[in-house]
Amino acid sequence: MKLIKAYFNLYHLQIESLIRKERLRRRFRKISTNRIFISDGEFKHSNDKVNITLYVYNKQKLNYLLKLKKRFIRLFKKPKFARKLRLIKKVGLKLLFKQKQKSILLRNVLPKYNTEVNTANNIYYTRFMKKSFSRLRFYMYYKQMLYINKTKFEYTYLHALINLIKNIFKKNVEFNIINLKYFYFNSKIFTQPLELKLKKDRRVLKYLKVLIRKAKIKKIKLAEKTKKFFNFNNSDNFIQDNTKSKNLKKILISNIKYKRVSGVRLQAAGRLTRRFSASRSICRTKYKGNLENVYSSIKGYPTPLLRGNDKANLQYTVINSTSRVGAFGVKG
Predict the structure, then answer these.
(1) What is the overall mean pLDDT for the chain?
(2) Same domain, yes or no, for 214 and 323?
């Protein structure tokens, strides 16, 4: 998993430092929440293949799209901006035409210095581009960052990661990447931002409240056990009919349990006090919604246990981390 996480945490330091006003330090970039969050991989082994399922929340892409929308996309729609672009085009074409005539004259007068004339032309063109498109420079940087983010999920770059994992398992590797709409749909992804924030800052209650507030809890609609049964011998004929297949989908989806998030709980414990203070470890907890299995507690349906004492309706994550002050843990 370290290899997979390192691949998705790759970043272009040069372009990201150009976007920011302040200097971008490597230490703060490593603990930044502007990244692709990944859950623990679910590995399924067969004789000749390993199937790796990953749940992904692409916060980096959402951040860049939001910045583009705020800064540039609204600006492009304004008629004033279109008029400015036309003016730049009109004036720029005149200047470039004059520069071209001057360069032709210099080449005719000084044929031995063609290389020097070409370098002077290139310097002129680069300066002209910088001055005319100074405000759009950041737009191109954001587009580059979005392209880098997109290529991480394409086969051309994933192929190198697959080859490295092949050497470890000595089998073929297949990735199944699932993009999550909300970060609280997976407990591992839900607790990772808190861990990264606490490494940089010690305001525990503030970050706990923010994360709990962002989790949208919905009421669970308890589905009754279906009274309809199907003859699976004639299932092919049943699915071919469009009207009957729609009814089948509705019945199957309505009988799926654990479709909605009914509750979340976050706990942070450890040396979360200020630096250079000889205080004890603290523990802070925030809770929202209900974590009970309503199908067993209210409806009385039997529920299986997974891996001993694990509950089927809960996702449980424990992250241990360290900082300059000391060690701490996050449960979610």
Answers:
(1) 77
(2) yes
